[in-house]
Specification:
Layout (H helix, E strand, L loop, with lengths): L9 E2 L2 H6 L2 H10 L4 H6 L2 E9 L2 E4 L12 E11 L10 E5 L3 E6 L3 E2 L21 E3 L6 E2 L4 E2 L5 E6 L5 E18 L8 E10 L2 E8 L2 E6 L12 E2 L16 E15 L4 E4 L3 E5 L8 E6 L3 E5 L1 E6 L3 E2 L7 E12 L7 E10 L11 E3 L7 E6 L22 E6 L4 E14 L10 E9 L1
Parallel strand pairs: 2-23, 4-30, 5-21
Antiparallel strand pairs: 1-15, 2-3, 2-4, 6-17, 7-17, 8-19, 9-16, 10-11, 11-12, 12-13, 12-17, 13-14, 14-15, 18-21, 19-20, 22-24, 24-29, 25-28, 25-30, 26-27, 27-29
Amino acid sequence: MNITDCRIAKRVTSHRKKNSQQLHSHISIQLGKFSNQQRKSQPVFSLWLSAVGNRYRLLIPHWLMLSQLILIVTLIATCVLLNRANAAASPTIVIPGNKTGILGSSERISFAAGPAPLMGSSTYVREHGIAAITQSTTGCTTTTEAIKGSSGVYGFPILDSNGNNTRSVILPSSLTIWQRTIAEGGTYPAGRTISLVTFHKGTWKITAIFNQTLDKFESDPDGTSGITPRHIYCPNLFPAIWDATQPNAFLYDPAFRFFVDATNLAPGRYYTKPIYLGSFSANSSGNNVVMIVDRINIVATNFSCTLSAPGSVELSNFNPTATILTTTHCQDDGNSLQGITVQLSMEAAGASSGISDNTRLLGVSESDKKLTIAGSWSTLAPPCGTTGSDDILFDGTPRELGTLAPGRQQTWQQPLSFRLCVEPNVAQRDYQAHALLSVVTR
């Protein structure tokens, strides 16, 4: 038997989820160990916070001081070309040509969940995923039909105008909630099952509730899993006996974004085959399959952008606010096929990912949610606990700077303001939080 058949799906506990990726970000930043590529392409803007007595002061960072200081907030400036979907049926993603990495994404795509068929069969089939994202209408996509991108995750192939595979792929991110009913006699207790399935750039997690019992599983880093080692984007549980007489249903409206993991795509036009959302049954009559997109159009251009920001900012409970000025410059380096809209976005990352339930607040790691940071796309730092039209949303929601036509170049300056929000009884210690500041073009 091939050893890959024996892998066990990762069962995720709350403790493991909390520490799995945050530790790596924490260590690499404390030691200041960035790869050469990161140092060249990602100028770092850092907020440093240290608890001193009964007050909090921000320490001005210096790479030589990293052995003594703890990083609190790092806003990493990157340049990413993203695209606004033209329509839910066939979005177009604009990316920079002749570059490698995750370079762009579609806008959020959602649609109404339709009537659900009955399961039709009680048989468990591991390759028949639950809320799978696939290019097949009968089951999950196999690893032989997919390609590994530069990120090391399997993706749907991007094709050139002649239908040939490039070395570039599409990676999905999504949120879906599904419902099935489990019959007596299996691994799990009988009754209705509600599960949340999330994808993040090709990797996935599934959280299932069985009559007040919670179980979690996650994919391997390449998008496969121990349950389905030869299939991608195929969330499933350990064997269960399904109630064939009950619905195989998606609850609420599914939402998706698709990312381009490119490998030196020359300027030009590319596309993908249709992509579906499918919750599959052993009996095909029980399959619940919806087309997400009939194709994704990818346009590689010669636009390039740079982003600069101050190297540090200082906050304390005596001076809890600060304003910085960012400068974004974009230009067409020649023969781009269409213009772009230029935006900035900021997204919780690293140690701050998943901490705050409020997208208007950047969570601070290990502060028990008693320390947060609010931001504004203006010269005025927002008050803690309020909302406004200029608020920074730390989920990557962009702020438009302007548009740029083919053959042109332009520079934009955008202020960003921050406020440190402190609740009572914060432990006196060092903390950290991270956010990603990006140039976004659509």
